[in-house]
Amino acid sequence: MTDVLAGDLYQMQDLLTDDERVVVERLRAFLRAEVAPIANDCWTRAEFPAHLVKRYADLGIAGHPHSSLLSGWIALEMAHTDPSMATFFGVHSGLAMGSVAACGSPEQQERWLPPMAAFDQIGAFALTEPDGGSDVAAGLRTTARRDGDAWVLNGAKRWIGNGTFADLIVVWARDEADNQVKGFVVRGDNPGFAATKIEDKIALRIVQNADITLTDCRVSESDRLANAHSFKDTATILRQTRSGVAWQAVGVMLAAYEIALRYAGEREQFGRPIGSFQLVQDLLVRMLGNATAALGMVVRLAQLQDAGQYRDEHSALAKAYCTTRMREVVGWARELLAGNGIVLGYDIGRFVADSEALYSYEGTREINTLIVGRAVTGLSAFV
Question: Which pLDDT score is estimated for 1?
């Protein structure tokens, strides 16, 4: 690959095929030219660059039969430039499109996936509720009641990425008849559906998170995901996208390392670049070590996915480990930049803030730890 990431010390990019490298290089060029120059400004104003959405369709990164390695690398590249845009894409292509691909009937897949792949229709994924996050599997309160050839949804959702402007929202609700969680595709202009932007966030400010209310919201039976019968089906989606967050965390680490490395070569104190000091080199090597170990983990995770050997504990461990190491790396990078590290124009401050959201969503460290703990001990420690 002619253009490489400075932090890829073990040349993991070389594992991509020639065709995959073309996709990555095209995406990287787009992100550097179109997203990087406006990221800080959009972050400050908490505004989403909607004018870029259709441009993603030309990159061939959604709705195509990518290998897990390429899909992961796409998430890495997007987070390396801006975690908010990585989150937008992950919600649309991973959670929303993934729900339709995994749980939709062939007719539903044909109806929704092509326009979503073309970014003509944007997706969102509504699972988390105001009073339910980690316990959502057992505590889901949004209800669905069958009424003739339709369903009536009532409830509330919170932290719904893309929720303020999405065309298609995958809503998970508990069927009053059998108490099982089922999936419904709700349109953004559906009567009874309302979305309000969550204001004053300190992380992922570009992402348009919404509070959603469903008040006697009627959804046709044809818009119920035909193969979503219980929360086990929902968990299948989360297993896939959780690995994507691990890849995003690696992208953030590599970005933080590169920012710090560049600064260490440019910033002078005591008559020489601070990169020549032992303590600064120690910080850089610790950052690089975390990023390299995490990258190796997610690359192996992708191999397991493609081999059909992928289990819940694999993605749970990767998400918990990579986001924890990410927190360390962005903190060390901020430390290396000293006071300049809290100035948005030096870039690292945005990654420090955004990393807090990545650390929490798609399962907290504690919840993912319990998933892995159950797998290795055979004993459940869930309440």
Answer: 42
- Looking at residues 252-270, what average pLDDT do you find? 98
Q: pTM higher than 0.85, yes or no?
A: yes
Give, in order, the Cα–Cα distances in Å from 82 to each of 87, 157, 206, 256, 355.
9, 25, 9, 11, 11
Domains of the chain, earliest start first: 12-117 (1.10.540.10), 123-229 (2.40.110.10), 232-377 (1.20.140.10)
Average pLDDT of the chain is 95
The CA distance from 89 to 87, in Å, is 5
pLDDT in tens, 309-321: 999 999 999 999 9
Find out whether 24 and 79 touch, Cβ atoms under 8 Å.
no
Structure tokens at 377: 């001990």
End-to-end alpha carbon distance in the chain: 48
CB 209 within 8 A of CB 169: no
Mean pLDDT value across residues 219-245: 93
* Cβ contact 333:351 at 8 Å: yes
Instruction: Measure Cα distances from 313 to 19, 24, 277, 347, 358 in Å.
Output: 31, 28, 41, 34, 18
Alpha-carbon Rg for the chain, nearest whole angstrom, is 21
**Token output for 241:** 């996208």
Take residue 195 and report the two structure tokens written for it: 């979305």
